[in-house]
Amino acid sequence: MSAAEQGRRQLHLNLFMLSTGHHEASWRHRDASPQLAADFRYYKRMAQLAEQAKMDSIFIAEKYRLNKMTKYRVIPQLEAFTMQAALAAVTEKIGLTATASTTYNEPYHIARKFASLDHISGGRAAWNIVTSTGDATARNFGKERHLDHSLRYERAHEFVEAAVRLWTGWAEDALLIDQEAGLYADMSRIKAADYEGKHLSVAGPLNLPRSPQAVPVLVQAGSSEDGRSFAARWAELVFTAQPSIESAIAFYADLKGRLKAWGRNKEQLKILPGLIPFIGDSEAEAKEKERELNELSVSDYGLYNLSALLQTDLSDCPLDGPLPYERLPAPEQVQGQQARFQLYVNLAREEKLSIRELIIRTAGGRGHFTVAGTPIQIADTMQRWLEAGAADGFNLMPPLLPSGLDDFVSKVVPELQNRGIYRTEYSGNTLREHLGLTGMSAPQPV
Amino acid sequence: MSAAEQGRRQLHLNLFMLSTGHHEASWRHRDASPQLAADFRYYKRMAQLAEQAKMDSIFIAEKYRLNKMTKYRVIPQLEAFTMQAALAAVTEKIGLTATASTTYNEPYHIARKFASLDHISGGRAAWNIVTSTGDATARNFGKERHLDHSLRYERAHEFVEAAVRLWTGWAEDALLIDQEAGLYADMSRIKAADYEGKHLSVAGPLNLPRSPQAVPVLVQAGSSEDGRSFAARWAELVFTAQPSIESAIAFYADLKGRLKAWGRNKEQLKILPGLIPFIGDSEAEAKEKERELNELSVSDYGLYNLSALLQTDLSDCPLDGPLPYERLPAPEQVQGQQARFQLYVNLAREEKLSIRELIIRTAGGRGHFTVAGTPIQIADTMQRWLEAGAADGFNLMPPLLPSGLDDFVSKVVPELQNRGIYRTEYSGNTLREHLGLTGMSAPQPV
């Protein structure tokens, strides 16, 4: 730890890596390389840059269905876990967070794959736990309908419990490796999972020795009531979309407050709101970058996306009029991203946005906090959130990649380091160490 | 192609990478490093060496359950697909063959993961298709019993058909990437899979553009009747355990003869029998290496393994007596590895082996062809098999790793190259190119 870092709260930074960037029109920008969206070297370079900037981890999202708007937007993401396994071989310190769904997977596979990633990376694996959305996904797995929201979370609880039992089944001293006696393992130190739930069961034990972190860092990003309950029980790292510092403070207090019921303390869960920075040498230049991307948004695309999220066909609504509030479903009827539904509706209502304005407002960040300014202004914002109890750090979502990452690393990171609120070197090797989760036990089965 | 290679049949070489080696006692040898069995760097070095030796591919097996004999033997293999994804990032030419089961997976996941591996590796992915064995595996996936042999293969056919439809759903010209017009993809060139089978269904389309090979090389290793039928329909690369050149010739002729019924020609499927070489500067030195490893075999382990394979408890049989043939099940009743059951029983009967002799005989290679000799003798054997129509190459299974690979690469490979029957440089970039499968269409859905 440098002198400047002494005693100051430290920011955690995660890079949310997404093809040409998080702005939906990013791929159309002259600085984008949409033809490289499935090229590993493109991601390798960004991952190595994030590691040079000493970020905690790289996060990759994952969907199990084709986005219908692939016509209008670069979607091809390589499968998240496959990418993270490949990136593990060409990075040394940075954490690797891959998304996998508890609705359409089996605990044994997930446990085995993440344990392998944790071995390969030397303790840098993290699992972003999602429950997936929509019937289109269900039909890719032989099912007519997606599981209901509450049943999905019920299954998710069972799934993680089973996986944790698998990961912790091998004691640290299970391996004997006694070549002379011909004894490789002490079978009494390898326990079966023997998990029997309502939704799934798994016998175990896992066929891999305990990995460096034992349990990969558990990550979660659902902010609905079910999502928050789940996070309070299991999550060690939470990504969240917060449109303002006020909403972020409320979310932070709510979620950290829920930990005690599970016998957990506030340091055992880090909250990283999404941050979409437009970086300019002047504020005007930054705003101009934002305007330029917003103008590239294809309106059909925006309207389709908004219709899907609100589960209401908006194609007959005037773009410059308000949302048809009377036709929207009640939030509890929404199957899918309940928290984001609520966020968009509240945003439109409170700021009296037209449909067009709401589309533009959310084009860049899907409701995540967007800031356009100089490196100093952006660092000011980040520091304010950190010190106000709105965040333990940020999930960095550059609107345009790779240039938005290059700018952040070369301009904002040094500013954060100068202020002593962000590391200049990794002090440990595992992701748990980066996140300050060591010394605390990993999640335990009940 | 070098002058020596002109017009000669070429060997294909696959490295079957397995922790400390294929001999069950390998981990006890003084040259073994069992403490590195879950260390990625250990495998990375071997993979890079196999690539320097211009091998076609690296193969990694995969099991979804803990081996009960973990007490006696190093088992921890990192999950095959995760490993291959990591190796993709640190190799450039060599093919990457990962095992995944059609019984305990979903086609959408498998298609998405292998397409991603094919993108990341630039067209080097291959899928070893297995149907898994045993109720212990079933119980790791919430099932009481494993699917019956014929139902497993029925599901396997459906699974591969569905996966091929997913892989071939994106036409080569589906991507427009027209930044000016804001059009990313031509949706009319992306087809759904719409697969509805008896065992599974999947809607599709896949959410990834066509990968370099479109379909990963399809690999198969079951030699039962069901397995051969399956291979004739789908496989492009077959691994097989053949104890002698005679059995290999018969297998080769049988399997290649089955291709015509599927409209396939003999070049569209390459057959690689397993080869377990003990390499010495003299034949005596090689035999000594073999003897030394056989002596390290733990007899409890050998008896347990044999009992499991023959599905008969042998613990009350005298080690120096014959197999209790009258108590063995009929081959068609065997749930699991029918072909290997038959192979072991035939071997014992024909060579009048005692149980002890059968254990020692199979300790090193589980029924695969074993040869102990000088590099010239081993190259002679390989050339004889190639020219006699017993093999298109070999699945190299060094009894002891990494030293057995080091010896093979430094001593046997140059000898094969001097004879003009093995490449000195890769002529292509993809695994299909290495295997001479280009110009022929990849497997098509019916």
TrEMBL record, chains A, B:
<dbReference type="Pfam" id="PF00296">
    <property type="entry name" value="Bac_luciferase"/>
</dbReference>
<dbReference type="InterPro" id="IPR036661">
    <property type="entry name" value="Luciferase-like_sf"/>
</dbReference>
<dbReference type="InterPro" id="IPR011251">
    <property type="entry name" value="Luciferase-like_dom"/>
</dbReference>
<keyword id="KW-0503">Monooxygenase</keyword>
<protein>
    <submittedName>
        <fullName>LLM class flavin-dependent oxidoreductase</fullName>
        <ecNumber>1.-.-.-</ecNumber>
    </submittedName>
</protein>
<comment type="similarity">
    <text>Belongs to the NtaA/SnaA/DszA monooxygenase family.</text>
</comment>
<keyword id="KW-0560">Oxidoreductase</keyword>
<dbReference type="GO" id="GO:0016491">
    <property type="term" value="F:oxidoreductase activity"/>
</dbReference>
<keyword id="KW-0288">FMN</keyword>
<dbReference type="InterPro" id="IPR016215">
    <property type="entry name" value="NTA_MOA"/>
</dbReference>
<feature type="domain" description="Luciferase-like">
    <location>
        <begin position="28"/>
        <end position="390"/>
    </location>
</feature>
<dbReference type="InterPro" id="IPR051260">
    <property type="entry name" value="Diverse_substr_monoxygenases"/>
</dbReference>
<keyword id="KW-0285">Flavoprotein</keyword>
